[in-house]
Amino acid sequence: MSSSDRWVENLRCPQCEKTGPAELSQMDGSFDVQVDSFPEGFRVIESVHGINFYCSSCDCPVDP
Ligand SMILES: [Zn+2]
Question: 51: CA distance to ligand 1 center in Å?
Answer without folding.
Answer: 18
